Amino acid sequence: MENKIRDTIKTMPLSIPMGVAAVSTIASLWLSSKRVHMICGAMWLGISAVHTWQHCQKVKNDAAKVVEKLGIMDFMNIPQTKFDLFVRSVEVSSYIPGRVRLYSKALVGNQGKCREVLAYLQGISELNDVKINDVTGSILIMYNPEVLRTNKELTRAENYIRAHARR
User: Fold this and answer.
1) Tens digits of per-residue pLDDT, 127-145?
2) Residue 138 carries which DSSP code?
3) Residue of 64 and 70 predicted with greater confidence
4) What is the C-alpha separation between 102 and 139, in angstroms, rounded?
5) What does each C-alpha distance from 36 to 16, 40, 109 come to in angstroms?
6) Is 79 strand, coil or helix?
7) Can you tell me the distance from the alpha carbon of 82 to that of 70, in angstroms, rounded to the nearest whole number?
8) Are 139 and 90 in contact (CB under 8 A)?
9) How many whole angstroms separate alpha carbon 133 and alpha carbon 113?
């Protein structure tokens, strides 16, 4: 029920109710009832608030479509996923297609963080094996390049790793 009301509000054109509320508010000035004027004004305000919310949602969606269509995030090399952000937060030690070694000082001696990172990386089905060494802060990731490259987000991360590998 609540979702149906929300969907109706999202899609309902509000120009007619806003016009009626505006005309009613202005017309109520000629009536000597302050109460009618306040009710009409409150309705106008409420409908205007919903219309503003609708407009903000539309602008947000339109902006997201433009960013995606123009590839602005790719052009500016901005991380777009949690994995992409993770890869950029570590040092890329080596890259061979199918095998990547990363380092993070934040993992050295921090077994809790190591377990957290390991659980996250093991949750990515395209990765075959992940090993983390909490003594050195090393992360070894093994994967099948053909399988990984079926995922656009992981392909983007692999390209970043390839470009930033020390060797």
Assistant:
1) 999 999 999 999 999 999 9
2) E
3) 64
4) 5
5) 20, 6, 70
6) coil
7) 22
8) yes
9) 11
